[in-house]
Design a protein that fits this description.
Number of helices: 2
Oligomer: single chain
Structural class: mainly beta
Shape: globular
Strand content: over 45%
Number of strands: 28
């Protein structure tokens, strides 16, 4: 028990600092367009543009941790967009068929093969998120600002309970299968959470939207343009910004009133500025994984150019020292236990 307690303390102290670390930034200039996501293995999903007969086709790609690019399957007349990637490398997204003008939800297996998700009515639909159990969350659009949320797993599609409202737009899910999003009619909506398929309105009233949920059950979202965190039955106001996503450490990224990229953790709100990225101007933050890596849009090589980049936190000297000291304490504790065990064994041999 001693070893586990010491190790837990070390991890907590190392991972719970409120200060924003400096980052090592690697640019990914060949990834051209949106729907960027990042998993805990460091794999990135995005798109590259192909020009065929003067028409731009957005092709889905994966960037491996070693920097290699891998194309995902898409038809010759298809535009492909990735929505999310889980830690097993399974990807959810959507395609657009230019020939018939139809948007359909799809998923890609670990080999990059594309599979369609069948949705009734041939309405435009999109797969947005996938958890580590392979449950895919998506939306089917029934109007300009209205949609019905659904989940899909192993060929079975289930629509979300709307709680008596006209629509239910799902935004995220965690590995326990808890869903978050919003319910409403027209331009009036409320933030909601679905546990075991049953919707429950979250505190905050009209204008609420639950955007992200982590495996601790924390829910981040917005009431209008105010960022909020629902945790342990209470709603905590975070500041005047819009939540984009949240990881399992409770780190949140979002955008401010002027679309500036922001980072929140443990009550501290910071601008993701060039002071943290080696002088690179940051224009947008897309995703953050459980290692604290962030997908950013930064300055390219030319004055007008902006490119995707992966920012990896550099451990602060104080926190790194704390980690090393903790590891020394852990090693000494293990050594002490081994010595105690050897002494006991020698004593038993003498008695015999």
């Amino acid at each position: 028990m001693l070893n586990k307690r010491i190790l837990a303390g070390i991890i907590f102290c190392f991972a719970s600092g409120a200060a924003l670390a400096d980052y090592k930034v690697i640019k990914l200039p060949d990834i051209d367009a949106g729907f960027y996501r990042l998993n805990n293995a460091g794999r990135i999903t995005g798109q590259q543009i192909d020009y065929i007969a003067s028409r731009a086709y957005y092709r889905p790609v994966v960037v491996e941790p070693d920097g290699t690019r891998r194309r995902l399957q898409a038809g010759d007349d298809f535009w492909g967009g990735t929505g999310d990637i889980n830690d097993h490398g399974i990807i959810a997204g959507n395609t657009w068929n230019y020939a018939v003008g139809q948007q359909r939800p799809v998923w890609w297996d670990q080999q990059g093969n594309m599979h369609f998700i069948e949705v009734a009515g041939a309405l435009p639909s999109r797969a947005r998120r996938i958890n580590n159990s392979g449950v895919i969350l998506g939306r089917t659009f029934i109007g300009a600002d209205e949609s019905i949320g659904w989940t899909w797993q192993d060929g079975r599609l289930s629509y979300a309970d709307t709680a008596g409202y006209k629509y239910a737009a799902l935004s995220d899910l965690n590995d326990s299968g808890v869903l978050v999003g919003r319910v409403g009619e027209g331009h009036t909506w409320n933030a909601a959470v679905w546990r075991d398929g049953v919707p429950q309105l979250l505190p905050g009233g009209a204008g609420g939207d639950a955007v992200a949920i982590n495996d601790l059950g924390w829910i981040a979202g917005n009431i209008g343009r105010r960022a909020v965190l629902w945790r342990d039955g209470a709603m905590i106001e975070l500041g005047d910004f819009y939540v984009t996503t949240m990881n399992n450490r409770g780190e949140i990224i979002g955008s401010g009133p002027n679309l500036e990229p922001l980072y929140w953790r443990n009550g501290g709100l910071r601008l993701l500025g060039p002071q943290y990225t080696g002088g690179l101007q940051v224009y947008e933050a897309f995703d953050i994984n459980d290692q604290g890596q962030i997908l950013l849009e930064v300055d390219g090589e030319r004055p007008w150019e902006r490119v995707l980049a992966l920012a990896t936190p550099i451990p602060e000297p104080g926190r790194l020292g704390l980690l090393l000291a903790g590891l020394v304490v852990l090693a000494l504790a293990r050594r002490k236990r081994r010595q105690a065990g050897q002494s006991l064994e020698e004593g038993q041999q003498v008695s015999a």
